[in-house]
Design a protein that fits this description.
heterodimer, A: about 675 residues, mainly alpha, MetI-like fold, B: about 325 residues, alpha/beta, D-Maltodextrin-Binding Protein, domain 2, 2 domains, five-stranded antiparallel sheet, 10 strands, about 20% strand
């Protein structure tokens, strides 16, 4: 082909109406940008136009805490009595598992020991067997055995006891909200944005009001955990109830069920497998909160991680962090095991309790025996000191070795990325006039979902400027944006490989489960040692945490490509490469986009953690507000984070839905 | 649950067989005194020593994890009772604001002296012979520069929540340095450790009592001496237009308490007022925990065991 024909070809393509439209749109945008950059108030939002929302929020909170009177008692008395009420199960669980009880009778005190570690391990092993057979019981025994052998038992049990109380409360609360949403469409519309906010506003933002209302201590930490962990349960409940097949519902009507019976005897039991997915999410999210909860007094493993890293005892931090991961894996697998356990529907149930629940009885017996035994054998109460293992020296040595020998290479790599990618992107993002960003986002919204979407996302973005958080918000967008791009560049190829090879799939699963539950603070400090304080370290932490959904959804999306399509492609003689690029990936794109959406959500949820290594963005704003007990400042900055999340979520969901329709998959 | 958690195992083991112990002597109130603990080891030790002494006096004690500044809200409402370490250098404003409400009271200095200042390791002396004088900092800015900050030098400050006015100081003194804030204590010392291992340049915020100045050999930068006027009055000092043209204040560390506690547990509050320890003692204890890896509770118990005359005096 000659050069001239290439050019004429290009000219032809440029003159196609669609391209022309696009060119004109781009031209219009550039023109608007040029105009906008001449008008100062369109570039930087004028300070005296800012709405003092943060002060309003602070004043409102003050009123709520100090003056709001419900008649017989004040609002604060009300919340304090809730805290008092919740304190009981929490203290009992902690006493039972971790600290033992001290009873005071008159002038004398009686100490009741906690449950024996051996008894607890035996009991969870037996229960795991009931849930999933021998393989699961070995796994669970290993996880709990780790706690004992690595000297994490007491802390582990404190964490476990707060999880054991928080999870049922979160699950039941989510269930009730879900039922409300299912019953009335209006309720659902009202509920969904609230759930969005609960999930995306960083926890630090509402810790201050929670502390004021519920007091300092483990209960406040638990309440914060519940707020964070409940939304998925509510969502799953709504979905699960809608998915119950109409035959079942009609059957219920035919036999004359009341509303109450319909819900609790028909709908909920039929939806149970899906509901359990929600419970599972509540467990995982509660464990995600362990570190943050320990900052406001929950104690346990989270506190151990923090205090080990404060002393730069990296190994101790990793051990305590792994204990959280293993606890999460054990609880996750057992709860999943109970979900999937085949239930013989109409088997004759034996009458006696013992015969009906052999596992439960065995587990209880093991605990009682071992705890009584602990009165006579010291090693049964607390795991003996001598066989405990510590790997601290190894980890610290490893980090030092890398630091001393490879710092220059790592530094060169870091500087390359910083100077060529991160810093230019940051400058660009910060230089964009706010009006142009609002306009572009609204325009995208309009193209993808019409006026409603355009208005919603436009308002979300404008909120950041109007409340005076524009620069910090853009810094957050930059940090998360860069991290998401890198996470996708790493995650999607791994997902593709995992989808095509069963063995890789299994290895990858284990890795991403660990990455997701290992507290990020654990790897944050070694990262700082190797890469210094700054955006780059923060970016690594965000990528490590946000990688998971990129991998998971890609893997899932490719596996979901309908088999007939694959067969057709094979019959048409596609090579492996063509199969991937021309068939599997295009079909899986909507699913992958949902994965990217989740990646963005997780990256944003890491902002608070990255503030701990000194990034200057919304996360830091929230963190400062927390330490200054400035409710309004924290909540407004938290809302900005939530609105960034919701903007990207709405846009990507709209795009993905449209694309699915085009592909005929919806 | 009056047993501090880490002790629980030991206590429970001792009490094996449902041992019946006798409750301690009568005190004004059995309600637990809530002591706050923060995120640095020294404070943890101070608080646990105080807590242990109060327990020996017969009080019930509870340790509550709370943020250094955010705790004042809890102290004012009576959710928390005693905070053992408020540093003049970082917590003065917050403390004074809180005392002004009348809901908290000053429980006196605890004997330790806080030093916080820009700090560098000794091995840099050869590369920048002008140190520790602050005027040498600009001459050596290339030594401390990184790719991100070049041509400016890089100074690693404490978390923004610590205050400290380092951005203002750099500007007022005309230092060609970019102040990078570490997000947490842990991140700050992680970076210092990293540099120290490689004998690489580092200029950072270090404070004492802390394990770092014990473990790492280094010096404070000599700024113009701090005076109250330096922070309040722009015309003071070498820069006539700006405040903060001096070093950081060195000063007391005080205990602060909920005002109501004076009536509820008067003797306990008196003991807190009497508490005093010296930098050297505290430095040694911190070193044992952070450098030698001993358990805090063991170190505290050991100190209590061997210094009965010291802490008995507080309880009189």
């Amino acid at each position: 082909m000659t050069a001239s024909s290439t050019i004429s070809n290009l000219r032809l393509r440029l003159l196609r109406p669609a391209t022309l439209n696009r060119l004109m749109a781009v031209g219009a945008i550039v023109a608007v940008m040029v105009v906008a950059s001449r008008v100062p108030w369109l570039v930087a939002y004028p300070e005296n136009w800012e709405i003092p929302l943060r002060y309003w929020v602070s004043d409102f909170m003050k009123w709520l805490i100090n003056d709001f009177d419900l008649g017989l008692f004040t609002f604060r008395q009300f919340t304090r009595s809730i805290a008092w009420l919740l304190n009981w199960p929490l203290v009992s669980a902690q006493g039972l598992l971790a600290t033992g009880f001290e009873l005071e009778i008159g002038d004398s005190a009686i100490d009741l020991p906690r449950l024996s570690w051996l008894g607890v391990i035996a009991a969870v092993t037996v229960l795991a067997h009931a849930a999933g057979g021998w393989r699961l019981s070995v796994l669970v025994a290993t996880c709990f055995g780790y706690l004992a052998v690595f000297g994490q038992w007491s802390s582990g049990m404190i964490t476990l006891s707060s999880i054991l109380i928080a999870v049922p409360l979160g699950a039941v609360g989510g269930l009730l909200f879900g039922i409300l949403g299912y019953r009335s469409a209006r309720m659902e519309r009202g509920l969904l944005p609230v759930l969005d906010l609960m999930q995306t506003v960083p926890v630090f933002a509402y810790l201050v009001p929670v502390l004021f209302l519920f007091g300092f201590g483990p209960v406040a930490a638990m309440i914060a955990t519940i707020i964070y962990a409940t939304p998925p349960m509510a969502r799953v409940t709504m979905l699960a109830l809608k998915l119950v097949s109409t035959e079942v519902v009609e059957f219920g009507r035919m036999v004359g069920c009341s509303r109450w019976q319909m819900m609790w005897k028909i709908l909920i039991p039929s939806a149970k497998p899906t509901l359990m997915v929600g419970v599972n999410q509540v467990i995982m999210l509660s464990l995600n909160m362990v570190i943050i909860a320990s900052m406001i007094g929950a104690g346990g493993l989270g506190f151990d991680v923090l205090s080990a890293l404060k002393r730069l005892r990296i190994g101790d931090g990793i051990e305590a962090g792994l204990a959280i991961t293993l606890l999460a894996i054990a609880l996750d697998r057992v709860s999943q095991g109970f979900t999937h356990r085949a239930q013989p529907a109409h088997k004759e149930q034996p009458k006696r309790f013992v015969a009906r629940n052999p596992h439960l009885v065995m587990a209880l017996a093991a605990i009682v025996l071992a705890t009584l035994g602990a009165l006579f054998i010291r090693g049964l109460e607390a795991f003996p000191e001598s066989p405990r293992i510590s790997t601290n020296e190894f980890w610290s040595g490893l980090v030092t070795w890398i630091n001393v020998n490879f710092f220059d290479q790592l530094d060169a790599f870091k500087n390359f990325l910083l100077l060529n990618f991160l810093i230019p992107v940051k400058r660009f993002m910060l230089s964009l006039p706010w009006s142009v960003v609002v306009g572009l986002v609204a325009l995208t919204g309009y193209r993808l979902g019409g006026w409603r979407l355009a208005l919603a996302v436009g308002c979300y973005v404008a909120f950041m400027a109007v409340t005076g958080n524009w620069e910090k918000s853009m810094s957050s967008v930059y940090l998360c944006g860069v991290s998401v791009i890198i996470a996708c560049l790493i995650g999607i190829p791994i997902g593709v490989v995992a989808a095509r090879r069963e063995r890789a799939h299994r290895v990858v699963q284990v890795c991403i489960d660990t990455l997701q539950t290992l507290p990020s603070f654990v790897y944050l400090i070694p990262v700082v040692i190797l890469f210094r304080v700054g955006d780059f370290s923060a970016m690594i932490a965000v990528v490590a945490y946000a990688l998971t959904p990129a991998i998971r959804y890609t893997d899932h999306g490719i596996r979901q490509v309908p088999a007939p399509l694959i067969e057709a492609a094979t019959a048409a003689g596609c090579s492996q490469r063509q199969m991937l690029w021309k068939v599997q990936l295009p079909i899986a794109v909507p699913e992958i986009m949902l994965g990217i959406n989740q990646t963005i959500m997780m990256a944003l949820s890491m902002l608070v953690i990255t503030a701990l290594v000194g990034t200057r963005e919304l996360g830091q704003e929230v963190y400062i507000a927390l330490t200054k007990a400035d409710t309004g400042r924290g909540i407004v900055a938290g809302l900005c984070v939530a609105f960034i999340a919701m903007t990207s979520d709405r846009l990507i969901s709209a795009w993905s839905a449209r694309r699915k329709r085009q592909l005929g998959l919806a | 649950m009056k047993i501090p958690l880490k002790n629980a195992a030991v206590t429970a083991a001792l009490a094996a067989g449902l041992a019946i112990g006798s409750a301690a002597h009568a005190v004004e109130s059995e309600d637990p005194i809530k002591l706050t603990i923060h995120d640095w080891t020294g404070q943890y030790i101070t608080t646990h020593i105080m807590g242990e002494v109060l327990e020996r006096m017969g009080y019930n004690v509870k340790y509550v994890q709370a943020d250094y500044i955010a705790q004042f809200a809890g102290l004012e409402s009576g959710d928390l009772h005693v905070a053992m370490e408020i540093w003049e250098t970082t917590g003065k404003q917050a403390m004074e604001a809180s005392l002004a409400t009348g809901k908290t009271i000053d429980l006196g200095e605890n004997g330790m002296r806080a030093i916080e200042e820009w700090w560098y390791p000794l091995y840099l002396k050869d590369d920048c012979p002008g140190l520790p004088d602050w005027k040498a900092l600009n001459e050596c800015k290339e030594l401390f520069a990184t790719a991100e900050t070049a041509p400016k030098g890089r100074y690693l400050g404490g978390p923004v929540t610590w205050g400290g006015f380092d951005d203002e100081r750099a500007e007022a003194l005309g230092l060609d340095y970019e102040v990078v804030h570490a997000g947490t204590d842990a991140a700050l010392f992680a970076e210092i450790q990293s540099a120290y291992e490689r004998e690489a340049p580092v200029l950072a915020w270090v404070y004492t009592p802390h394990w770092a100045p014990i473990k790492y050999k280094g010096e404070w930068v000599n700024f113009p001496r701090y005076a109250d006027e330096c922070y309040d009055d722009p015309s003071w000092g070498m820069n006539a237009d700006k405040a903060y043209d001096c070093g950081k204040p060195r000063g007391w560390i005080k205990a602060v308490g909920w005002a109501g506690g004076d009536e509820k547990w008067p003797k306990a509050y008196d003991a807190v007022r009497a508490f005093t320890l010296e930098n050297q003692t505290m430095g040694g204890l911190i070193g044992r925990v952070d450098l030698e890896g001993e358990e805090v509770d063991a170190v505290v118990a050991d100190w209590i065991e061997n210094n009965e005359d010291v802490w008995k005096a507080w309880t009189q």
